[in-house]
Amino acid sequence: MRPQLVIVGAGPRGTGLLERIAANAPGLYAGSGLDIHLVDPHPPGGGRIWRTAQSPLLWMNSHAEDVTMFTDETVQMAGPVREGPTLHEWAELDGRTFADRQIQGRYLRHVYERALAELPPDVTVHHHARRALRVSGPREGRQQVWLEGRPRPLLADLVVLALGHLDSELDDDQTELAACAREHDLVHLPPDFTADSDLSPLRAGEPVLVRGFGLAFVDLMVLLTEGRGGRYEGDTYVPSGREPVLYVGSRRGVPYHSKIGYDWTGDRPRLPRFFGPPEVEALLARPEGFDFRSDVWPLVEKELGFAHYHRLFTAHAERTAMTWTDFEEKYAAAADLAETAALVAAAVPDPADRLDLAALDHPLDGVRYTSHEEFQEGLRGYVEGDLSRRHDPEHSADLGVFLGLLSVYGQLVRLGNVGPWWHGFFSYLASGPPGPRLRQLLALSRAGLLRFVGADMTVTAEDGVFRAASPTVPGFSVEARALVEARLPEPTVGRARDTLLRELHAEGAAETPDGLLRIDPADGRILDGAGRPHPRRFALGPFTDGRTPGAFTRPRTGGPAFRQNDATARAALRFLAELALRAAA
């Protein structure tokens, strides 16, 4: 019988894995025949998140020229490079366009179809438009993948879980709020992919509390304004009359930083410099393990500072007080944060040119406004300042930090579990909305349809309503009969609604303290509680401790997801090739 490979999830990650299988198969798997089963209720390529059947009002948050599904020479992998078009090249778009997600879905379908065409002729792909319910089978034997509505399982010699973003059960706080909503006929929308949420209960003219100020919020904002017939005339929003009034807050109390609106020129910083493979290997070799804050973060901070100051000194030397050569030597020799801070103070006269990661992460810490209206003006000023800075090449040290963030993420993936904070911090600085979206946010604020609540927003259920407050505006609170949790569900294994992951969890698959599935960083095999990799089960994606910034990335930035896909594809092909040889013997 021909070897059987089952890939659960046919979105960007499953598609990227198939592309790597096609690239590696000629060298690792030839002439033995193979069936690949893709299991996903949504069409292959885009999967659920990038399906073409969603509102054309929803955009990507990256320029079309910054999106690729193809490897290049910067990806550190054993397999062959197979270059291909970026999104803007394939769709013949202006590279600076923020394409809508329907276009990205069609691009992903192209990548999928190209991978199919490049597979060896004796490899066949079957798509099963169903949900996978569970995986069973012995460690050393064939696996059974049970599908919804199918009485018999798929038999698999190997299984790869490429599930993408998943739904999860409510946490304790959300459970309490949902119970209150049922008791008092309120509306509570839990964390979800916004395009899948039923927004019809959010009524025109009524206040809606929104907890979350990232990309899920931006989608919500769009669907409840333009999606309900409103329009923009320049910097003015013309309402349709069908919009609710959104009261939004979060831990930081501010939206994610705008995408940078200019291109890189000149020399790039040599990355990694202070946090690269040697430092990662040293951390992994510690018998006592490592702590992110005390052991990893100082290296990350030094790396991001290096990227920032390299750009400042080489592109804006007039704003510095020493040569780059002198600064770099002293920066590398600085033994602690105090010594580094003293060096920076001497070399960079304007505090606005210095990198302060703590201030970036907590922009409203200690900030207090005397009234709600004063805070509206203050936060509009903050957003306007962010838009101005992120579109002004005089502040191109910010783009240096962006490159540093990409480099750091590529190294952190190798460490595995670093906790949830880093991913949120990265997204806040490097994966924010397009500038036009923040200009729309400002227009909605001026129109009175978007109101800012503040940092450390709390939501309680009292007297039959939801009530939100924030220390940013002492004494202010707002009541509403609707609450939206504007964020994706936490990708924890124990609370996943996906029965397949819950079964793995029940069987003893290892998880991090934060609930992510533990995998072998070398090839993605699922680990058990004793740290043993499962010989026939792999996992890739945001529900694992090998999570990456995304399944696709900027060209020529080393894409850690591509490296992972290649390692998993090669490990799977080698296993299946040996299996085929044994069967033929």
Automatic annotation (TrEMBL):
Task: Please identify the protein, giving its name as recorded.
Answer: Adenylate cyclase
Stretches for region Disordered: 526-560
Where in the numbering of this chain does the FAD-dependent urate hydroxylase HpyO/Asp monooxygenase CreE-like FAD/NAD(P)-binding domain appear? 6-165
* Pfam families the record matches: NAD_binding_9
Q: Which organism is it from?
A: Streptomyces diastatochromogenes
The family database entries (InterPro entries) matched by this protein are listed as: FAD/NAD-bd_sf (IPR036188), HpyO/CreE_NAD-binding (IPR038732), L-asp_N-monooxygenase_NS-form (IPR052189)
